[in-house]
Amino acid sequence: MAASVLDSCVDGIPEGLPDFTTDAYRSAYSRINAIVIEGEQEAHDNYMAIGTLLPDEAEPLAQLARMELRHMKGFQSCARNLSVEPDMPFAQTFFAPLHANFQAALADNRVATCLVIQALMIEAFAIAAYHIYIPVADPFARRITEAVVKDEYTHLNYGQAWLKAHFEECRDEIEVANKVNLPIIRSMLEQVADDAAVLHMGKEDLIEDFLIAYQEALADVGFTTRDLARLGAAALAG
Q1: Residues of the chain where predicted confidence (pLDDT) is lower than 50
Q2: 3-class SS of residue 110
Q3: How much is the pTM?
């Protein structure tokens, strides 16, 4: 597989695409790809964990978790296709703050917080990243990512539906989860900006697409336009 990608680059890279064969690209890709793989593993584990808090929803959540494992395997194949070793220790450190907050919410039976972190924030983060990546991906990874992004909307919609159905009882908890965790997401986007730029993924595009997906989810849950402005200001101030 790797040879097919490398051979396609011999006569030049199509306009607007990065050179997939350079050391700089391969170095950046080792971290970006690891983040994606770790994110899918985290998602699997998180959905299985949420199922312990919502036993009546355990099976649909397990189905979502299984989808995440398929995604993870797909992105592992993308790394193999480019003969790149994913930097998994970097990715685990990258996710550590959100992981810790999710685990704390899980221990406290805060279902809404768990869903905000996983089904709204992380899924919106993934959707934004995949949309920005697809136009500049190598052909093999593009096919994988296009298939994955369709599934991510299913996961985002699951979180929206549950939070919408429980909005009045969970509103305050959602607001706290937003205030605590949205700055972490912003920090994660900043942290990955340099590597993303090597892959021709713009930081401002990533931030904009994330905020659009995330705010659309919050609006569907029940927050007004004025609420969204207030939530964004409270979470990202400074």
Answers
A1: 1-13, 238
A2: coil
A3: 0.89
